[in-house]
Amino acid sequence: MKNKQQNILIIGAGLCGSLLALRMGQRGYKVTLMEMRPDLRKVDISAGRSINLALSDRGIKAMNLVGIQDKVEPLCIPMNGRMLHDTEGNTTLAPYSGRDHEYINSISRGQLNALLLDEAEKHDNVDIYFNRKCESVDFENTTARFTEFNTEKEFIEDADIIIATDGAGSAMRQSYYLGHKFLFSFSQDYLTHGYKELSILPGENGSYKTYKNALHIWGREAFMLIALPNLDGSFTVTLFLSFDEGEYNFNNLITKERVLEFFTKYFKDALELMPNLVEDFFENPTAPLGTVKCSPWHYKGNTLLMGDAAHAIVPFYGQGMNASFEDVVEFDKILDAGHADWETIFSQYETSRKKDTDAIADLAIDNFHEMKGHVNHANFREKRTLEMAFEKTFPDHYSSKYSLVTFNENVSYHDAMTRGRAQDKAILNMLADGAITEVENLSNEKLKTILENVKAETEAILEDDRIAGLK
């Protein structure tokens, strides 16, 4: 393992694969990165499937690890909170944090991926190939079978280790599953909802037609619309809707008239900004939303799954990319420990990482329900009002579940989930029981007393969970 001349094959040059190739290149390994699609720097391959990304502290930590945060920053648009739109078109800005320096960033998947590929390519020991589709992986002999798209020829790529970062439909994960050489657990759970990407085009001279520095949400209980800003003045808009349930669903929105009727009824203020709606709706695909969990992620010291290939999640916590980037950070830490062989490295990495990726997968589904419905409920809004006051007044003594996940990159996802859920339960219980009767315009003294009570209740819930074996 100490021999840096070892050949590392990385399958998949998306965000995780290109970052991993860059980092392994920086560490001196000989890296071959293979990608099924054409080079996104030369052709447009988004095809209405991008879902804008929210880069937050865990992802930024990874950018700092490889020394490119200064190049990433100009690609980012800060979003300080959720802009909530009701059916009448009224808006409320709900901050993500009570601390002014905490915000998430809207960033283009394509621009970030292109930057990572450019940076990886600067290393002579990194070779990147496009239009090469992985068909299967022989994980016992550490070889992978590819088809070269332009010639339709098959070839075998040999390597010392293979790391698959080839996304939710991973060819290597399928080879694990079909190989029947070891006990491999796999689950793929789809939401009843799918998504369709739409857009708000820029105003005159690249101006923004609605408030720029927020993640816009039209939450309607059973479905929702969201919009994230782009550098050119446009917004990437995504509709999350059931395939077949409810009065309006993807299966019955099949005419121009019906689509316009749906948007007029539920998203009137968004529709006014989207004269291109019908064209987008019928041109762009409708795609499913699912969670993938599996184990083990590795086979001996030969092969390893990373990123979405190991743990695909739904996009509602804005942590899919951040989690995959954090994979690379955590893997890098294990490499720093200086283990003598890849098997130990892979095993240690999986042991330390899997509980965290399981946690963020579960949290993302929680947030789906929160975004489309809970944000409109009085007790949820009261809880958030209180949490913002805690964070603003006592910034070193309280972080909400959202802040723990999004802005505390040194707190593991699992710990953020455990503590965050206990805090939520504590506050909601106290609101329901009348132990907290007011949440606005509280004196610092009163706020401090409530915070101390919330903390005590949180610790009691955590202790109960520990005794029950839930923690």
From TrEMBL:
EC number: 1.14.13.9
Enzyme class: oxidoreductase
All residue ranges annotated as the FAD-binding domain in the record: 7-358
Entry keyword Repeat: no
A Pfam family recorded for this sequence: FAD_binding_3
Keywords: FAD, Flavoprotein, Monooxygenase, NADP, Oxidoreductase, Pyridine nucleotide biosynthesis
Pathway info: Cofactor biosynthesis; NAD(+) biosynthesis; quinolinate from L-kynurenine: step 1/3
Catalysis performed (reactions): L-kynurenine + NADPH + O2 + H(+) = 3-hydroxy-L-kynurenine + NADP(+) + H2O
Molecular function per GO: FAD binding; kynurenine 3-monooxygenase activity
SUPFAM superfamilies linked to this entry: FAD/NAD(P)-binding domain (SSF51905)
InterPro entries: FAD-bd (IPR002938), FAD/NAD-bd_sf (IPR036188), Kynurenine_monooxygenase (IPR027545)
A Gene Ontology BP annotation from the UniProt entry: quinolinate biosynthetic process
Domain of life: Bacteria
Names of the cofactor(s): FAD
Function summary: Catalyzes the hydroxylation of L-kynurenine (L-Kyn) to form 3-hydroxy-L-kynurenine (L-3OHKyn). Required for synthesis of quinolinic acid.
Sequence similarity: Belongs to the aromatic-ring hydroxylase family. KMO subfamily.
Name of the protein in question: Kynurenine 3-monooxygenase
Organism: Bizionia algoritergicola
